[in-house]
Amino acid sequence: MSSVQFKVRAAIAPVRALFVSEGNQGLLLMAVAVVAMTLANTPLSAGYEALFHAPLGWTPVPKLTNLHLWINDAVMVLFFFVVGLEVKREMVEGDLSERKSRRLPLIAAASGMVIPAVVFIAVVGNDSLLTRGWAIPAATDIAFAVGVLGLLGSRVPASLRLFLLTVAIIDDIGAVIVIALFYTAQIKVTWFLAAVGVTAGLALLNMRRIDSLWPYIAGAALLWLCVLHSGVHATIAGVVAALTVPMRRRDRSPLLARVEHRLAPWSAYLVVPVFALANAGVDLRGMELDALWAPLPLGIAAGLFLGKQAGILAAIAGARRLGIAHPPRGATWLQIWGVTVLCGIGFTMSLFIATLAFADHPALFEEAKLGVLGGTLMSLVVGYVILRFAPQSAGADLR
Fold it and tell me: Domain 23-280+291-389 falls in which CATH fold?
């Protein structure tokens, strides 16, 4: 290797490390969030706002009139498609395929969605407008949470890593169901029936064991267009289409896992960061200090930081006491607590639900973003500190 090549490799080594280390996704999202906040609070804010919200001169889909809508209603479909692939793989062949192994994560995830919503409602009260955001603190951001675990290395037992990942996946399933049931506009029957028909066609392809990807890609695009106009949020099409992709080809070689492997980096390093850039910026200039303690941001932050850890920790302790399920093997209660705090990292899915809950109320959406960022930051820092300094106890067994 020449000296020039060596110098080039040395110069780009930090950049390469970002994209090959386990903490890469979390670090990238942190960086993008900082960039978004910076753009929103400098003289560049007008350009930042115009970039995403100014009407487009031309759009192939008249319903999507600006870049922000294209990102949230079209680009994010790839993120939800990857989520759908991951969910199907886990339920068919992974950690959610066996009743015994999914019992504790299911209980913990359910409690970790209900309790944050209860905390949120307790803080915001009976305001019917604010209560539309009840689901915002219910989701866990897989990329952020796993990224933090990557920074901690071997300090976190493998059983706890698996537990957090499984809970986050179930959270995603719950969030998708919540979006479909509670954040759906008035259904347009014709478009909805067309979406059902396309879904049936994709399912038929699966049943006939068609293993070429092109029919599924074409069907997914058509399904997205139908769902976009049906009143159901368009990203649901990504999950539905993913569930129709066959697990294996006719020759038994893996198909779904290969598609997931190819698309996951695009979702993690392009789709989610672009979404974060378009949605995470909060203009704090001129904002009164009292705004930080307004019911909406306070309810979201409390739900993420307090509700998540309380719900999941109580579920683990209750399941153990009742003999329903055992805590993760090889982990201490302090380590378990640290991981439950990390589950309060909402970010991507929480921001997404906020865009749906307050689509017609920009001021409330800004407050919601403030709550998501505050709750996520507290959960990230406190969870990291707990796990960083928790005593290692390889022989711990709370069974």
Answer: Na+/H+ antiporter like fold (1.20.1530)
